Amino acid sequence: MATINLMCVHCESEKVVKCSLHPDTGKQRYLCKECGRRFVNGYTWRANDPTIKALIISMSHNGSGTRDIERVLKVARQTVSNTFKKKPQK
């Protein structure tokens, strides 16, 4: 049996355990024991991926507009707007 070493996508801790299955996609969800957040190892929708959200913020700081970000990252304009509206993580 193969083992997979996972790291939390939020705090990068290795204290991760299986949690449950995602209700919509049926993918395995994991729970981080450090920060208490849940995540999936491989997102079905690009908009849910934390790296895409970080790219949206980075591109906006570098002067890209909403439609430019939408076109380059291939996500919906509403995804870009929602990312701007959310409070920053601590």
In short:
By secondary structure, the protein is an alpha+beta fold. It is built from 3 helices and 3 strands.
How does this model look, in words?
This protein is an alpha+beta fold and 90 residues long. The chain has two domains: 1-42, no CATH class; 46-85. It is 32% helix and 16% strand. It contains three helices and three strands. The protein has a three-stranded antiparallel sheet with strand order 1-2-3, with no helix packed on it. Strand 2 and strand 3 form a beta hairpin. The protein is elongated and about 40 Å long.
For the sheet with most strands, the description reads:
3 strands, antiparallel
Our count of helices gives 3
Detail the poorly predicted runs: none
* β-strand amount: 15-25%
Please tell me the total number of domains.
2
The amount of helix comes to 25-40%
Number of strands: 3
Q: Which class do the helix and strand fractions yield?
A: alpha+beta
Shape estimate: elongated
Question: Strand arrangement, largest sheet?
Answer: 1-2-3
The N- and C-terminal alpha carbons lie at a distance of: 38 Å
Please state the CA-atom Rg, rounded to the nearest Å: 15 Å
Mean of pLDDT: 85
Sketch the topology as an H/E string, one letter per element. EEEHHH
Protein name: Insertion element IS1 protein InsA helix-turn-helix domain-containing protein
Pfam families: HTH_Tnp_IS1 (PF12759)
Domain Insertion element IS1 protein InsA helix-turn-helix: 43-85
